[in-house]
Write a structure and sequence with these properties.
Helix content: 40-55%
Structural class: mainly alpha
Strand order of the largest sheet: 1-2
Largest sheet: 2 strands, parallel
Shape: globular
């Protein structure tokens, strides 16, 4: 992406975002932009599967808007998660989109198992291979 804003207001990337460069569009379309997060997984700061992290400014705003939002921090954040493979990904500008994502995150936390993680990983690989990824 081109220059990002500083400060508390962070504009989310959306489909057709004019800040995304040609190379960035390719990286997003192929999900290669997610690979640097593997370093965070190796350092133990993230998991492969878990609630997807948001920018700090969004975390604070969502926590004020939704009582259940901070509960998603009960688990280490993940590169992919139940919300992403069940269609609750992308921009949270639409009313109800963050609520649906938080609900999926809470469902994941309540029902966590190794088999659920494996299922989500396979669904993620399938979604990337089928081209169901970010614009």
């Amino acid at each position: 992406m081109t220059v990002m804003e500083d400060g508390a207001a962070v504009r989310q990337a959306v489909a057709g975002d004019d800040r995304v460069t040609k190379i960035g569009r390719l990286l997003r379309r192929t999900s290669l932009d997610e690979l640097p997060q593997l370093f965070n997984v190796l350092k133990g700061e993230m998991s492969l599967v878990g609630p997807r992290p948001h920018a700090l400014a969004h975390d604070e705003a969502f926590a004020r808007a939704l009582e259940a939002y901070p509960n998603r921090h009960q688990m280490r954040p993940g590169m992919t998660g139940l919300a992403q493979v069940t269609g609750h990904r992308g921009s949270t500008a639409a009313p109800g989109s963050i609520e649906a994502r938080v609900e999926a995150d809470m469902d994941y936390i309540a029902n966590w198992s190794l088999s659920l993680d494996i299922k989500i990983l396979f669904q993620t690989v399938w979604a990337v291979a089928a081209g169901q990824n970010a614009d």
